[in-house]
Amino acid sequence: MSILLNDDTRVIVQGITGKIGSVQTKWMLEYGTKIVGGVTPGKGGQTVEGLPVFNYVDDAVKETGANASVFFVPAIFVLDAFLETVDAGIDLIVIVPEHIPVHDAMKMRDYAKDKGTLALGPTTPGILSPGKGKMGIMPASLFAPGRVGVISRSGTLSYEFAGILSEKNIGQSTVVGMGADPVVLCNLPEILEMFENDADTDAVIIVGEVGGEQEEKAADFIAHNMKKPIASYIAGRFSPQGKKMGHAGAIVRGSAGTYDGKIEAFKKAGVTVLESPVHVNAWAEKHHLR
Amino acid sequence: MSILLNDDTRVIVQGITGKIGSVQTKWMLEYGTKIVGGVTPGKGGQTVEGLPVFNYVDDAVKETGANASVFFVPAIFVLDAFLETVDAGIDLIVIVPEHIPVHDAMKMRDYAKDKGTLALGPTTPGILSPGKGKMGIMPASLFAPGRVGVISRSGTLSYEFAGILSEKNIGQSTVVGMGADPVVLCNLPEILEMFENDADTDAVIIVGEVGGEQEEKAADFIAHNMKKPIASYIAGRFSPQGKKMGHAGAIVRGSAGTYDGKIEAFKKAGVTVLESPVHVNAWAEKHHLR
Amino acid sequence: MRLHEYEGAAIFEKFGIPVPRRGVVRTVEGALRIADEIGFPVVLKSQVLVGGRGLAGGIKTAESSDELEKSADDLLNMEIKGLPVKELMISERVKIAKELYMGITIDGYSGKPVAVVSTEGGVLIEETAKHSPEKIASVKIDPKLGFYPYQAQKLLRQLGLAPKPLTACSDILVRLYKVFEKYEAIIVEINPLVILENGGLMAVDAVLEIDDSALFRLKKSLSLPTDNRLGNSLENKGKEIGVTYVDLDGDIGLISSGAGLGMASMDIIGNKLNPANFLETGGGITADLLYKCMELILMKDLKAIFINIYGGINPIHEGAKGIVKYIKDHHLTLPIVAKALGNHQEETWEILRSGGVHVVTQAATETAVDKLIDLLK
Amino acid sequence: MRLHEYEGAAIFEKFGIPVPRRGVVRTVEGALRIADEIGFPVVLKSQVLVGGRGLAGGIKTAESSDELEKSADDLLNMEIKGLPVKELMISERVKIAKELYMGITIDGYSGKPVAVVSTEGGVLIEETAKHSPEKIASVKIDPKLGFYPYQAQKLLRQLGLAPKPLTACSDILVRLYKVFEKYEAIIVEINPLVILENGGLMAVDAVLEIDDSALFRLKKSLSLPTDNRLGNSLENKGKEIGVTYVDLDGDIGLISSGAGLGMASMDIIGNKLNPANFLETGGGITADLLYKCMELILMKDLKAIFINIYGGINPIHEGAKGIVKYIKDHHLTLPIVAKALGNHQEETWEILRSGGVHVVTQAATETAVDKLIDLLK
């Protein structure tokens, strides 16, 4: 087993007729993902890569039995399409697009929580379970099957870690992109819990970055709930200060959000802190991961 | 027992320092109601009729153990005060004021339902259980203790029915004003259910009026759930057409809302239909009510 | 408060709903000027705040200046259901392929807004509702969440529209909901929403009724006069003093506290007497208010007055004082029957009797009506 | 997009938040004219989009025309953190009894707005947060329900304010939330919110930062220029072509795909080399975009270029084509190291090598950084 994606996952691609949606559909199919159809309003009846295209998500669900959806919908339409998808009863939604208004993301998060729908993103490369399938844009060549779980706030850093591990023949069970936005639809501890409960994952790598308090909350969760070995890397130690959230943000978070605060929280929780991505090899060796 | 009001009911009066609030407090106290305090923002620390006044509802609850509230708050402040009162954990709220914006009433209703708070009104004379107490403005002289439940959409018609019954020594268990607005916080079937389950109520009188579909829904509820004798009067048979809700309203409701539709629904449900309030005496005699 | 069509159309336009080119005029010359601007053919629509103006002949079309001149003159000299036509809206006549209906109102029982759509727009929409319910679809809206295009589409899909008009309709319905929300409407309605021959959509009528209770916070964004919008001057006067007044044809003045009691009084009077009005005071009876109520109902020729009031909010003897003051100020001699119960009722009866009012002290309204009939024999 | 104080103040005013009388000027003469209108003493505030302008000397007061003339001239010839002061806000100087703080931002972890208030307003508010957390209170807001006076009061009660300023503050906080909601803010802030000597309240600063991703639907209601608002012209240019560009002091050009990978690159470069910038392409690499990125980073004098990209959304060889086209068009000879992995990577490497780029094919960024250091020896 892997987390999130499994043999019962039947995926639709929203925005399938777009340039990106159609190419990514091809790549997801090539990787063995069970894609059952697509949705683009007004393009119902067409086919893409041999898959049926529907106007509405509920039609797609009814006709294909889909239970998961990956979004390549233009940012300004994502909120509406997301609510539609939740209402249609889809269990897992991956929001790849970036530049979703954060006030929309708050509404999406709230709605998904209310209805018990699991959603990742926005601005996520998606999920990839090597050898099983992928929902999103992760470039398949960098991944290898194995027993290490990776969860990353940054899309490209998840590729970097998978690439480094794969080069040393250390495979991954599932690689999850949380999404890089300030408000994401699923927080870090929820993913960690899935990895902890996954029989096919032996250890977990958390790829974080400065800003927000996902890592601090995760550290707290790990200290109380996790037994598997965990390594973490926080990007941004030497980075120019990014977007400043003003006083209110700084006040609310206190020391949360800083590199030092995150590192300290992880160390307290017994998490191995990696100073650089390439150090993951030594950690994997120490824990005999493969 | 009576419904809604009982020996454990500890009432606060919101807007207690106003002209109407203070007079009505006096009258409610004179009727034996257990009033424990009042709330008027900015008037905390004063007393009215010997009762402590608080600035905030949560303070009043903490200090007095209040679990019910009756509103004499100006219409434009009612929404805010209502949400505050629900949040403070009050179980029963009676909204006496009229002219509450209906979009506010929709929000209030939704919030109360979400939090499981029972609320009556807006534009209700309140609740009166003869000999026990009252929350609201019902003039005590017209009521007498007994075993007939009265539920009325119209304030003054509830007085008319109670008056007619009392003159014939037929007492009431509880008289409930639902509120005369198009959107009320508690619908007719919910009150009927309480009367059906009340050991001290032998029969129920429903005082309805043309417009809306409370009576139609109540008829449906009665047919399936009630055993006690029920009489009903619908005001508006010969009345000039009131506010017209336009096509949309008429379309949504179909024949609901008309005098004939309501009468027909009640008759089908086995409810005695009274052509005039005074006919209630014959019905009461037939059922040996007292 | 119901808005005129032209006021509603201006708001719809601001919210991005397509409406015809148009202008509002009070004269034939004005009508000609507007028609010149927008080009013939045009439609002339009487701006009166009653339903059914089309069936009453209040809407005409004109192909030429001559025709326009005549029609405008006719309409501006016309009354519709007793209301004189003072304003005309002159608007472009569009080429209609199909008429739809859409509206949003409040479903009182669930306490939620409800959107209603139909493929059968036009004057007979209520008939359609009765006889072809399958041509009508509706959905309740959670006002906390708002109303999104996907929900509008889901509703409109039930009507079997083609994809293109469906998307355009859903866009308009979402905008209509924003009007409903922003203006705290009791009803917003487009009937008909026209599919044009060129495939576009246009809102050819605009109904917008605002919750009077919300006007206090809408006045700024509305910037419309809110007074004197009722057709009848006495009804406007009632609104001014804060009571509900409905004008009727009879000769018995009727004052009641509460709409329910007022309606019951009408029912009990039945065909035995003819009320001249229906005046409902609402809560909070004061001496001043009842004085003004007497003044208002006596603007008509009355044979008698029937007063049916309960004191709840205020002690009722205050109201009695106002009635008696009016009687004395105006040396009123016509028969007055009053049933007045509630707090301070004994005091009330005494005061009323001091003004020569026939007081009924029993609860049943029948007794009071019988008394009045007796007096008029 | 962060608004200037005067832009924010105008919006606050429109939402009923009391703000000082004021005017915005670009010249000393303008400053004198405004001061004459509102009367001395006045405050002169530099309108630059960076924090800490007060501590940097960007705010002055003037009691007289002479003083104003001198201060205005000083400020208009000043730079704050590298930004020239082009505009001054001249505003009335109010008599301050106490300075409070209030702000609303987004709590990312819960995904909800959060309101923050403090009795210790002023420039040192973040210090207060660290050392006297009891003087700060905050509450999360359910955006579905909105933010009501009773909630604002409940929050403000924690600060122990007297009833009168508490009610007035809660009114302002509720209005501030409406600004936050309407303008899809990332942050709105009043610091300080001043209790005046006469007991009134006034928002003496106005911070409003709008979510860039929401600008598409806000442009109409904002009616403000949305371009070129960043202090640095290269950063503005980055925004124009759709990438995040941060200007730095070094001499190594840095292009990365993704902020995380960019930050990791910076971390790994550490103190070994000095980046001249931080350019993050976001998703969707195309030939055209990478051509423009090359153009942008080469507006500075560079010793070498470091490219660290992954192809996810698009096949990565497209981006490579853009890089090589730029190299050939401009006969670029400076050393370029590129680590480029993802879809079509072999093709990508071939293309890059054809432009003389040193290609690294391993995943670890270290390898690429080592290669660059080697080349620069």
Would you mind describing this structure in some detail?
The complex is a heterotetramer, with two copies of chain A (290 residues) and two copies of chain C (377 residues). Chain A is α/β, with parallel strands linked by helices and 290 residues long. Chain A has two domains: 11-120, NAD(P)-binding Rossmann-like Domain (Rossmann fold), CATH 3.40.50; 139-286, Succinyl-CoA synthetase domains (Rossmann fold). Chain A is 36% helix and 22% strand. Chain A contains ten helices and 14 strands. Chain A has helices at 19-30, 57-64, 78-87, 102-115, 155-167, 188-197, 214-225, 246-253, 259-268, 280-286; strands at 11-14, 35-39, 47-48, 51-54, 68-71, 92-95, 118-120, 126-129, 133-136, 145-152, 172-177, 203-209, 230-235, 272-274. Chain A has a seven-stranded mixed sheet with strand order 3-4-2-1-5-6-7, sandwiched between helices. In chain A, strand 6, helix 4 and strand 7 form a beta-alpha-beta unit. In chain A, helix 6 (188-197) packs parallel to helix 7 (214-225). Chain A starts with 10 loop residues before the first strand and ends with a helix. Mean pLDDT of chain A is 93; it is low at 242-246. By secondary structure, chain C is α+β, with helices and mostly antiparallel strands. Chain C has three domains: 21-92, Dna Ligase, domain 1 (2-Layer Sandwich), CATH 3.30.1490.20; 96-222, D-amino Acid Aminotransferase, Chain A, domain 1 (2-Layer Sandwich); 233-376, Rossmann fold (3-Layer(aba) Sandwich), CATH 3.40.50. Chain C has 13 helices and 18 strands. Chain C has helices at 5-14, 28-38, 65-76, 125-131, 149-157, 163-182, 215-222, 233-241, 259-269, 287-297, 317-329, 345-354, 365-376, and strands at 22-25, 42-46, 59-62, 79-80, 83-84, 88-92, 96-107, 112-118, 136-140, 185-196, 201-203, 207-210, 244-247, 252-256, 277-280, 304-311, 336-342, 358-360. In chain C, strands 7, 8, 9, 10, 11 and 12 form a six-stranded antiparallel sheet that branches. A six-stranded mixed sheet of chain C has the order 13-15-14-16-17-18, sandwiched between helices. In chain C, helix 9 links the parallel strand 14 (252-256) and strand 15 (277-280). In chain C, helix 2 crosses helix 3 (65-76). The mean pLDDT of chain C is 92. Chains in contact: A-C, A-D, B-C, B-D. Chains A and D meet through helix 1, helix 4, helix 5 and helix 8 of A and strand 7, strand 8, helix 4, strand 10 and helix 9 of D.
